[in-house]
Design brief:
Layout: H1 5-18, H2 26-35, H3 42-51, E1 81-91, E2 95-104, E3 110-115, H4 121-136, E4 147-151, H5 155-158, H6 160-168, E5 171-175, H7 185-199, H8 207-224, H9 235-246
Parallel strand pairs: 1-4, 4-5
Antiparallel strand pairs: 1-2, 2-3
Helix pairs in contact: 1-3, 4-6
């Protein structure tokens, strides 16, 4: 149905208030309106949002140095490359706590997430274990073929234990270029979203409360986060569509 500017503004406010994520841009808002059958042009929606100061803030661009990779780190199908990384967040009782993640480069689905008291090689492996079990049913020797794991050169990831464990189950290490964080950009981008949508806007009593919040966020992100590069489908929808079109065939 076509709507007036006033009706469009009311729908925009309603959808922004109901959205589980903060700071979504006008393209995702336009997609959510389209899903509800509300017909409004992108340019008109952009104008209405701008006039009413409802646009998301855009960070300023940073000057970048030369790249030593192609810039194309996405994949055409799932389970070709996963990315892993970690960040820290503060808890009231346990202090600064590391958060480890694993992301599929195909649909940016969060396939593993974990919080721990220590940022060591054993805890860094946990989201990878989760991902393997999630996608392949169990964590065992050579259960995977043809999957690469993108990671940086942190001591956790280059350790003998971590490398031997991922190799044991059939994963090939794919370290990013030194001083080129863009090579692990998909994991880095998810961490940015995780910070903006959860870690920076909530307080956590201890690591256990944080773990529960991370698992809840993982499900919410996979089922509700809209991917502009995939026609505003969610990570779960992209994965299920691929399986329906390829596995059945």
């Amino acid at each position: 149905m076509k709507v007036s500017d006033e009706e469009t503004l009311n729908h925009a406010k309603r959808l922004l208030a109901a959205c589980p994520f903060l700071g979504e841009g006008y393209r995702k808002l336009h997609a959510r309106m389209r899903f509800e059958g509300i017909l409004v042009g992108k340019d008109r929606l952009l104008r209405i949002l701008r006039d009413n100061e409802l646009l998301a803030q855009i960070p300023s661009e940073k000057q970048r140095g030369p790249r030593f990779h192609t810039g194309k780190i996405g994949t055409m199908k799932p389970n070709e490359m996963w990315g892993t990384d970690f960040t820290f967040t503060m808890t009231e009782e346990d202090g600064l706590v590391p958060v480890f993640i694993a992301i599929d480069h195909f649909n940016t689905e969060c396939v593993g997430i974990h919080a721990a008291l220590r940022a060591n090689r054993f805890e860094a492996l946990e989201p990878i274990r989760q991902a393997v079990i999630n996608r392949f049913g169990k964590f065992e020797k050579k259960i995977i073929k043809g999957l690469k794991l993108r990671h940086d050169h942190g001591t956790q990831y280059v350790s003998h234990y971590f490398q031997s464990e991922i190799n044991w189950c059939g994963i090939e290490a794919s370290p990013s270029f030194i001083r080129q964080p863009e090579g692990n950009g998909i994991a880095e981008r998810f961490i940015k979203t995780l910070k903006e949508q959860l870690l920076w806007i909530n307080r956590f009593k201890n690591v256990e409360e944080l773990r529960l919040a991370l698992q809840d966020f993982k499900q919410k992100y996979n089922e509700q986060w809209l991917l502009g590069g995939h026609k505003h489908q969610t990570p779960k929808q992209v994965y299920e569509k691929y399986l329906a079109e390829n596995v059945a065939a």
